[in-house]
């Protein structure tokens, strides 16, 4: 069953009563209620989600704050990938039972999967305090630290989990992913192989293993994966992950036709679609809103702090490498990909389907409100580093949010990472992004999406009241030091030779480029698309004049 087949929970879960009556414990624990809950759980285990939801909602209709029914509705929302709804249900359940470790663990994990790292860490720590042996909470807390660019903080929790249950499916994979993000690739690979040998979390384990090194033709892992993908009974998600992992290994081994076959198969299995017409209209709306007059009328908005640096561009354009070089400077902290700007935009009404709500939200914003919002983001950066003169946020898709960023941070630094259009699009297509990146599901859409990105960046260069450094991947790989010096100068800092030895910098790197940024500069990724030229006609057509061959 695909995620799209799960029941819809509507725009929001049923609202809690404004003044909820005192819980009726006798009614909540009545035999018929407990039996109904068990029936719902049994149905949910059979993946009969609609039937399970009817039972839980029936209980909540009579007992609106029944903690188990709220918690179970949250688990259904997680199955449907509706994290905002899940968070709401879990929060209400935790309000009733603040020390329940499973409620706290699931709420913390929902915060984690919706990008709220601070709340995820705080809540998962409470879960671990309430139940020190709860393996899922320990492993998810380590994952939250890793996602928050503090992977080393998660190691003690993984070590505790390993002492309690070394053979738990989450432990070896969690260790592998954490050590990989810390650059300890050989140790990470050993943990991934341990998970594979035990048959645990195979999609994550093979995906993780594929990212720890370059593979050669004849390596046993290629044959292992080729055999696995022929098995019956695999879910769509498992097959998608296996094909991506095998595609990456085939690319390493220079079996380019095989690699493209696996990447295409993975995309077909994903079933993802992207509404390029809707996206084009959203870009039109952004360009129409953010004009020189708009910014002129809002002088004095935001916070004049010089702390934030936004590294933006298409995914796979060199943003991780750029942040690694900047973060090697002793006055710069690399915070990784922060979701805060997108969350602020969502709070102001941003959505591709209804960009007009964003227009209304921004036009209604006052100078005082802009300073308050900016202050919250700056406090988030200061949690990342108390002493740094600059903190980088390298969420690539903040390229859509540069108008908002300029409004909130009139002295922010913007670094635009740019790479050859064909190489960028091919690399996007070859990687397994989250569902929010539906544009990479086929070569035509990724090319059309790139054109919209390029159009919007052209608009920002014309109207944005902030300087944008154009940081070319090809120039960086051709002449590392001059490009790196321009980058550090743009940040308003004195040069430091540590930036040339970025690959020795000890920090968490949680993106697809984690292996590459541990290596010295190399040029083998320039014009890598030529290896796949026979397969790229749809991309060339979509890119049009941006496809320079």
Characterise the protein shown here.
There is one protein chain. This protein is mostly helical. It has a domain at 276-546: P-loop containing nucleotide triphosphate hydrolases (Rossmann fold). The chain is built from 27 helices and 5 strands. The protein has helices at 25-28, 31-45, 49-62, 67-79, 83-96, 101-113, 117-130, 135-147, 151-165, 169-181, 185-198, 202-210, 220-228, 236-252, 256-270, 276-289, 292-296, 319-327, 340-347, 355-364, 367-384, 402-408, 421-429, 443-463, 473-478, 480-490, 537-543; strands spanning 308-313, 332-334, 390-393, 413-418, 468-472. Strands 2-3-1-4-5 form a 5-stranded parallel beta sheet, sandwiched between helices. It is globular. Residues 1-15 have low confidence and may be disordered.
Architecture (CATH level 2) name of the domain at 276-546: 3-Layer(aba) Sandwich
Number of helices: 27
Largest sheet geometry: 5 strands, parallel
Could you tell me how far the N terminus lies from the C terminus, measured between alpha carbons in angstroms?
A: 42 Å
CATH class of the domain at 276-546: Alpha Beta
The third-level CATH topology of the domain at 276-546 is Rossmann fold
Q: What radius of gyration results from the CA coordinates? A: 24 Å
- What global shape is seen? globular
């Amino acid at each position: 069953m695909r995620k799209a087949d799960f029941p819809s929970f509507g725009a929001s879960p049923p609202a809690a009563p404004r003044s909820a009556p005192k819980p009726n414990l006798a009614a909540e624990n009545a035999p018929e209620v407990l039996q109904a809950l068990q029936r719902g759980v049994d149905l949910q285990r059979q993946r009969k989600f609609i039937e399970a939801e009817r039972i839980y909602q029936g209980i909540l209709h009579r007992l609106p704050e029944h903690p188990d029914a709220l918690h179970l509705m949250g688990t259904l929302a997680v199955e449907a990938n509706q994290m905002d709804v899940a968070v709401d249900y879990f929060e209400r359940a935790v309000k009733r039972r603040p020390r329940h470790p499973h409620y706290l663990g699931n709420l913390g994990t929902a915060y984690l999967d919706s990008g709220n790292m601070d709340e995820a860490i705080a809540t998962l720590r409470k879960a671990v305090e309430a139940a020190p042996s709860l393996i899922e909470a320990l492993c998810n807390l380590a994952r939250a630290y890793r996602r928050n660019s503090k992977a080393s903080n998660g190691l003690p929790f993984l070590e505790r989990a390993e002492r309690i249950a070394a053979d738990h499916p989450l432990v070896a994979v969690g260790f592998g992913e954490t050590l990989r993000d810390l650059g300890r690739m050989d140790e990470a690979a050993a943990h991934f192989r341990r998970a594979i040998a035990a048959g645990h979390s195979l999609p994550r384990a093979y995906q993780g293993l594929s990212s720890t090194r370059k593979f050669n033709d004849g390596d046993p892992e290629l044959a292992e994966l080729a055999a696995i993908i022929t098995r019956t009974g695999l879910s769509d998600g498992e097959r998608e992950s296996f094909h991506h992992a095998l595609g990456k290994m085939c690319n390493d081994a220079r079996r380019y036709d095989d690699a493209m076959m696996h990447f295409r198969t993975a995309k077909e299995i994903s079933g993802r679609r992207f509404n390029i017409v809707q996206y084009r209209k959203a870009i039109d709306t952004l360009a129409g809103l953010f004009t020189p007059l708009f910014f002129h009328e809002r002088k004095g908005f935001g916070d004049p702090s010089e702390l934030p640096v936004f590294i933006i561009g298409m995914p796979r354009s060199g943003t991780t490498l750029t942040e690694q070089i900047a973060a090697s400077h002793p006055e710069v902290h690399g915070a990784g990909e922060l979701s805060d700007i997108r969350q602020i935009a969502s709070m102001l009404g941003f959505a591709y389907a209804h960009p007009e709500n964003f227009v209304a939200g921004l036009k209604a914003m006052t100078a005082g409100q802009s300073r308050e919002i900016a202050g919250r983001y700056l406090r988030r950066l200061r949690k990342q580093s108390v002493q740094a003169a600059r903190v980088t946020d390298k969420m690539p898709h903040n390229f859509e949010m540069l108008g908002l960023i300029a409004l909130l941070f009139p002295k922010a630094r913007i670094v635009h990472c740019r790479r050859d259009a064909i190489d960028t699009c091919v690399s996007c297509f070859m990687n397994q992004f989250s569902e929010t990146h539906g544009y990479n599901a086929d070569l035509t859409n990724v090319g059309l999406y790139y054109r919209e990105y390029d159009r919007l960046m052209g608009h920002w260069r014309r109207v944005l009241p902030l300087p944008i450094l154009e940081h070319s991947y090809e120039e960086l790989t051709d002449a590392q030091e001059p490009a790196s010096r321009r980058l550090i100068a743009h940040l308003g800092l004195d040069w430091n030779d540590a930036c040339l030895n970025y690959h020795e910098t000890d920090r968490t790197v949680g993106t697809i480029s984690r292996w590459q940024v541990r290596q010295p500069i190399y040029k083998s990724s320039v014009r890598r698309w030529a290896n796949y030229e026979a397969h790229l006609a749809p991309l060339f057509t979509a890119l049009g004049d941006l496809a320079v061959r």
